[in-house]
Each structure stands twice: as C-alpha cells, then as structure tokens.
Write a structure and sequence with these properties.
By secondary structure, the protein is an alpha/beta fold. The protein has 2 domains: about 120 residues, Alpha-Beta Complex (Aspartate Aminotransferase, domain 1), CATH 3.90.1150; about 240 residues, Type I PLP-dependent aspartate aminotransferase-like (Major domain) (Aspartate Aminotransferase, domain 2, 3-Layer(aba) Sandwich). The chain has 16 helices and 13 strands. The chain has a 7-stranded mixed sheet, sandwiched between helices. Helix 6 links the parallel strand 3 and strand 4. The radius of gyration is 21 Å and the shape is globular. The chain binds pyridoxal-5'-phosphate (PLP). The site of pyridoxal-5'-phosphate has 13 residues, from helix 5.
Length: about 400
C-alpha cells in the first residue's frame, strides 16, 4: 500500500532548521525558526512557569482524563484575557471556549467547524501569511483565497487594497485576521483601520477568524487584544484561535484555545457541540500539563505579576534588537531603507530582499532566514547585529 507514497520535501521551516544545525560555521546566525531567544540564544523556561510546574506536580493526584473541552478554569481565564472582563459577547453569553493543542490545534478545529457549517465558503488569508496557515486551514478541504496585505518593497500595509478585495468576497466567507504582531510582516492595523475592517466585516456579513498567537509581544496584553475585541464586539459570529506557545514559552506543551462566538446563546451551544465532536474525532482531549501550568499562573496574583514582568522583558529584548539592527543597517547601507524594522512589532519582519539574496546570505554568510526574507528579530544579538547588517549591505544589491 505505502509504496504509492513518494517522499515529500521537508516543511520549509523545519528544513531550514536542519540546514542551520548542520552548518559548522562559528559565525552562523539563526533568524529562521519562530521561537523567542534570550541574549544567550536560549529559549528559556520562564521562571513563573517553573514555579507553577512544581506546584502543579506537587498537587496532582491523578492523570485521569479531563474533558474534550479541557480545563474549565483555563477556558474562562483565556476568554477574559483575550476579550476582557466586560466584553459584550461574554455579557450576552454568546462565547464558548475550548482548550486546544496549541494555536495550531485551535486553527484546525476552527477550520473543521467552518467546513461542517458551510463547506462551500472560502477562507481569505492575508498575502503574505504564516506558512502553516495554508495546510492548517486547507487540509480541512476549505477553499483558500488571498487578500492583499503588505507591500514588501515599500514596507507598508496595503490597507485600501485589502478592504477593496474583502468588499468583493462572497457573503458568509471567512476572513483570517492576525490579532497582533502579524507573522511574517510585523505590520499591524492601527485602531482606525481595525474599526474600518470591523465595519466592512459586519456590512458584508463576513465571518472573522482571528488568530492571536503573540498577545503581549507588541505593547501589553490588553492593547494587543484591542483589535480582536473590537471586531468581536461588532460582528454576530466569530472564531478566535489563541496560543500560549510564545507569551508563556510553553511551545512543546501545546497550550491554546478556540473561542467561538455565536449570534445567540443557543447558536453558541450548537457550535460548541460540533467543536467538541470535532475534537473527539481528531485528538479526543487536549494535553493537560501546559494548560494546568497556565491556569495556575493566571489564578495566582504573584505568579501572574511575575509572568507579566517576564513577558515585558521578552518584548523589550525584541524591541531592542529591532532598534539595534535598524541602526546597524543605517550604518552599513548609509541610508534609511531599513528603518521600517524599528517600528514594526513582534518577532518578525520581512527584510524585503529577493530569494537569491536570502540564499547568498545563507550560503556565503551563514545567516538563515525564510526564503521570503522573514527574519526572527529574537535571533539578533548585540554581538551579531553588526555582522548581519554588513552582510545585508554587501549582498542586497549585488
Ligand atoms: C500566526 C501564528 N498563529 C498560530 C501559531 C500557533 O502556534 P502553536 O500551535 O505553537 O501554539 C503560530 C506559531 O508560530 C503563529 O505564528
């Protein structure tokens, strides 16, 4: 049977990680894989996570199943963190939340829910978007379409073109929207743009599927969720995929959630029943360990304070490297072409160079980034920023 299957090429990000590991150069720089790194190049276990993990293990009396929806206390804390305490959809009891195996699990379950409800709709994703959005949403069988989002040569949003394209989407279509720290561009909507988008979604009866995987990486937990909250206030129905991989550093523990908003209480209950059936059919129950840690942190004021401090430190480290790299690029190129790096947000920006330049940076200078020139700013260090900037200046026009 399996003789039929030919070997596939590796996933672009995982393939790049393998190449980086195999490179013996001592000056190599990893701007590829999307994980936070501290000044030593480590992706640390947060101190609040260590403490919470010890408490969770000490208190644990069973490994018995929890539920297809995961932990109730986790789900309500996540809902409050993403939507805020006084959100109208929560007040009207139109929200339901289930724990999921990371943001990816939430995206996939959300895609299956859309497919169960309306198999013929298209899901519109930003051009560009995070590479994994395509298989996560597409493998449920949904048709994908793209809306213009970012001009990589001008380093700016294509907001008018985005609205113009979405205005032509079919009623009932789904629009995938990054909540903050857009991956891969680092370019987010401003408050007026969020407002215009929310109005268009409402007027054209489009369903937002909001993906928030970097809450706290731009400004703080509340401000980073402002766009998501605004959209969710105005539309009758929405899905929100949440991830704690980055902001709690719980990557491998697979901690996320899917928030669903129905047009009324009974619709929300019906949607939830489908979500639970879908989850049962894919992974049955989400892993518990990471969610137990997150729940413990959310419920314990001292640990939550500590988390917010650690989150702020991660954010500052990324912002510092944005500043440093932009300054170094000014020095090496003698111009302001890369100043946009300074004002974008989150871990990623597109350097805005061709695939050939990306290949030369890798093959000649051992600097690794994705082929679309997505760089992870957390891979920049005070000791390598100058080296990266020299290499970019040498190769970008050559
Ligand atoms: C835009 C976006 N959405 C969702 C995720 C989900 O990540 P995870 O499944 O690790 O929680 C990521 C992770 O890189 C992401 O960049």
């Amino acid at each position: 049977m399996f003789q039929q299957l030919s070997r596939l090429s590796p996933d672009a990000i995982l393939g790049l990680m393998a190449k980086y590991r195999a490179d013996p150069s001592t000056s190599k720089v990893d701007l590829g894989v999307g994980v936070f790194r501290d000044l030593s190049g480590n992706t640390p276990v947060l101190a609040c996570v260590r403490r919470a993990e010890q408490a969770v293990l000490a208190a644990q009396t069973t490994k018995s199943y929890v539920a297809a929806a995961g932990r109730e206390e986790f789900n309500s804390a996540v809902e409050e963190m993403v939507l805020g305490g006084a959100h109208v959809a929560r007040r009207d009891r139109r929200t339901r939340t289930v724990q999921a195996p990371g943001g990816c699990g939430a995206l996939r379950v959300g895609a299956e829910l859309i497919r169960a409800a309306a198999p013929a709709v298209s899901v519109h994703v930003s051009d560009p978007t995070w590479g994994n959005h395509i298989p996560l949403l597409g493998s449920s069988g949904l048709r994908l379409d793209r809306y213009p989002y970012y001009d990589a040569a001008k380093h700016e949003l294509r907001f008018d073109a985005m609205l113009e394209r979405l205005d032509r989407a079919a009623e009932g279509d789904v629009v995938l929207i990054h909540g903050c720290c857009h991956n891969p561009t680092g370019a987010d909507l401003d408050p007026a743009q969020w407002q215009a988008l929310a109005q268009l979604l409402t007027r054209r009866r489009l369903i937002p599927f909001l993906d928030i995987a970097y809450q706290g990486f731009a400004v703080d937990l509340d401000q980073d969720a402002a766009g998501v909250r605004l959209v969710a206030e105005q539309v009758p129905e929405a899905l929100i995929a949440v991830s704690f991989s980055k902001n709690l550093g719980l990557y491998r523990e697979r901690v996320g959630a899917l928030i669903i908003i129905g047009e009324n209480e009974s619709r929300a209950d019906a949607m939830l029943s489908h979500v639970l059936q879908i989850a049962r059919g894919i992974y049955s129950m989400p892993p518990d360990h990471g969610a137990a840690i997150a729940t413990h942190i959310f419920a314990n004021p001292a640990l939550k304070e500590e988390w917010l401090r650690e989150l702020a430190a991660m954010r500052t480290r990324i912002d510092d490297m944005r500043e440093l790299l932009a300054t170094e690029l000014r020095r090496t190129t003698g111009g302001a072409d890369f100043d946009f790096i300074r004002k974008q947000r989150g871990m990623f920006s597109l350097l805005g160079v061709s695939t050939q330049v990306v290949e030369r940076l890798r093959d000649k200078h051992h600097i690794y980034m994705l082929s679309d020139s997505r760089m992870n700013l957390a891979g920049v260090m005070p000791h390598n920023a100058g080296y990266v900037a020299e290499a970019v200046a040498a190769e970008r026009l050559a």
